[in-house]
Amino acid sequence: MYCYSVNGRSVVPCHLWLTGYAGEIESQLQKMPGFDKWIIDKDTGPYINTFESQKENLVYLTADSENMLSELDLNKIYIIGGLVDRNRWKGITMKKAVDQGIQTAKLPIGNYLKMSGSQVLTVNQVIEILLKFLETKDWKESFFHVIPQRKRCETEEQVAQEEEGEEGDEESDQGLKRQCIET
Q: What gap in Å lies between CA 102 and CA 119, rounded to an integer?
């Protein structure tokens, strides 16, 4: 619902598909007022069946890919999975894409900022980043606009400002512990 809403408000909305939501997820979605009126394409079956004739254009976005996304190709269909790809399921989306013979890519987060923890983002965050990138054509602006401060380490500039304003302060010391360098 959030992705649908943010896409509708976007300066450059994209064509959204919702696939693979059969069963309990479908039942819950049907209970949402207006779901049947959403202006998106829907298919309860798996994306691999939905886009079988366009398999060469599928790109699964996964943090485990070695392929760094530099631009968005409007002829490609970017898959944003709803799986949390860490802990015991580490690498599952990458394996799924490889098994299905489809391309993979990851967002170039590490080129623009350091994350304080995992580089795994929510589906909502990925949609927002892609929409912001379509609007600005600027990955850095897109990441800083969407990724919450708590998931980012501080930039050198922010740390320098803290040092000047709060020397010796315990909060400043904690900030320095989290210091990361913006690239």
A: 22
Collapsing DSSP to helix, strand or coil, 60 comes out as strand
Task: Find the angle CA(150)-CA(144)-CA(83) to the nearest 5 degrees.
Answer: 65
CA distance 142 to 157: 19
125-173 pLDDT per residue, tens: 999 999 999 999 999 999 999 988 877 775 545 444 544 554 444 444 4
Catalytic positions are: 85
Q: Provide the sign of the torsion angle of the four alpha carbons 92, 127, 140, 161, taken in this order.
A: negative
State how far the Cα of 43 lies from the Cα of 54, in Å rounded to an integer.
15
Between CA 179 and CA 85 the distance in angstroms is 26
Element (H, E) at 99: helix 92-100
